[in-house]
Amino acid sequence: MRTSLPIVVRSTEIDVNGHVNNAKYLEYFEWGREEWYEQCGLSYETFGDMDIQTVTVNINVNYKRECKQGDKLIVTCEPEQIGRSSYVLKQEIRDENGEVRADAFVTSVTMDRSTRKSREAPADLRKFFSS
């Protein structure tokens, strides 16, 4: 499943260079992942019922073109690959013309809430990676 989240760049997201600060892209990607989890029915409560949490362990971002105040963007998120307990989500930030402004591969791990150790990804998550 691929999700899309529209956003508009706000003045508070601009740095001294007049474009979106690099750290804000991470926030945009996080908003896109949260949208993906929600659309998949994988809320915090759902994971809590499974006694697991997800933890981001790696983010690789390619900044391709700057974003400026007022830009209308779309943040996408889709499953890329899954292992025993880790999984990768592919994300893009595109402008309204479809041009990629940034992309990222985000690796997360499913973790047991009590032991705080990695735990096999549940079938409810795994099913989104099969195709």
From TrEMBL:
Entries under Pfam families matching the protein: 4HBT_2
Keywords: Hydrolase
Gene3D superfamilies linked to this entry: Hotdog Thioesterase
SUPFAM superfamilies: Thioesterase/thiol ester dehydrase-isomerase (SSF54637)
Family: Belongs to the 4-hydroxybenzoyl-CoA thioesterase family.
UniProt-recorded name of the protein: Thioesterase
Annotated organism of origin: Paenibacillus glycanilyticus
Taxonomic placement: Bacteria, Bacillati, Bacillota, Bacilli, Bacillales
